[in-house]
Amino acid sequence: MRMVRFVDAETRAVVQGITGRQGRFHTRLMLEYGTKIVAGVTPGKGGETVEGVPVYDTVAEALDRHQVDASIIFVPAPYAPDAVYEALDAELNPIVVITEGIPLRDEMEMVARAMRRGITIVGPNTPGVIKVGECKLGIMPARVFTRGRVGVISRSGTLTYEIADHISRIGLGESTCVGLGGDPITGLDFIDALRWFEEDPETEAVVLIGEIGGDAEERAADFIAEGGFTKPAVAYIAGRTAKPGKRMGHAGAIIQGSRGTAQSKMEALEAAGVSVAERPSDVARLLKALLG
């Protein structure tokens, strides 16, 4: 069983790839949210600063000067695996990998190494993780989130924002939201996150945002049906009109055989007692009915 670590107000983070366009932009937004960004890393850029954050050539140099718990990675795909290994060697946890387009074989190796060390990788190709009101390690728009009691686990970035906005508007709010990532290989799956939310005292219900492709949602349904998660749950599955073999947006979303279709996922979740929404806007209404 994988142990999961997310973030909170005390998390001190390093931004790998901080001097790039995305790294700079999102460092500013994370700092504005209150995230403790204590250092940045870009090889060859040591001695610079970004938004007042000191930049180092290596993670090891940053750790010599600062206490660091976690990493967020904006490094381009060809160099992202080395950045992940550097963070793993430093035992940073979690490691949030925003980068998309990392080769599948590299993703498999990254995730395998992290599992052996008991370190949580969020992603790759993820919008990140946010503990609402405390810490944002990611690229999600902070304005759609309000502090509350609903956890969100999602394979889709944009649907996360849309559904969180609906949850916020009806006054329930969110506790922690995590983007699993849109690639076929990810550090976390729904079951890992459900185990974490089961133990989280601030979370009273969870939303699962899935999509076609793979069997992660069906496996989550089995886990719930077997009693692994006991809190109320609502799900939404994107891509229900897709035909078998069709890719939907990214590499992780492709239907193969009878598993992986929106229908099979919805049926499995409903059989496990999960309320399944027809539209993203229905998620908040179903939550309200469950939580009062």
Structural notes for this entry:
- By secondary structure, the protein is an alpha/beta fold.
- The chain has 2 domains: 12-122, NAD(P)-binding Rossmann-like Domain (Rossmann fold); 140-291, Rossmann fold.
- Helix content is 33%, strand content 24%.
- The strands form 3 sheets. A 7-stranded mixed beta sheet has the order 3-4-2-1-5-6-7, with helices on both faces. Strands 9-8-11-10-12-13-16 form a 7-stranded mixed beta sheet, sandwiched between helices. A two-stranded antiparallel sheet has the order 14-15.
- A hairpin with a 3-residue loop joins strand 8 and strand 9.
- It is globular.
How would you summarize this macromolecular structure in one to three sentences?
By secondary structure, the chain is α/β, with parallel strands linked by helices. 33% of the residues lie in helices and 24% in strands. The strands form three sheets. It has a seven-stranded mixed sheet, with helices on both faces. A seven-stranded mixed sheet has the order 9-8-11-10-12-13-16, sandwiched between helices. The protein has a two-stranded antiparallel ribbon with strand order 14-15.
CATH class category label of the largest domain: Alpha Beta
Structural class: alpha/beta
The count of domains is 2
Strand composition percent: 15-25%
Read across the widest sheet, the strand sequence of neighbours is 3-4-2-1-5-6-7
As an assembly, this protein is single chain
At the fold tier of CATH, the topology name of the largest domain is Rossmann fold
Low-confidence stretches are none
Instruction: Provide the CATH architecture of the largest domain.
Output: 3-Layer(aba) Sandwich
Q: Specify the CATH homologous superfamily of the largest domain.
A: Succinyl-CoA synthetase domains
What letter string, H or E per element, gives the SSE order? EHEEEHEHEHEEEEHEHEHEEEHEH
Mean pLDDT: 94
Approximately how much helix is present in the residues?
A: 25-40%
Cα-to-Cα separation, first versus last residue:
33 Å
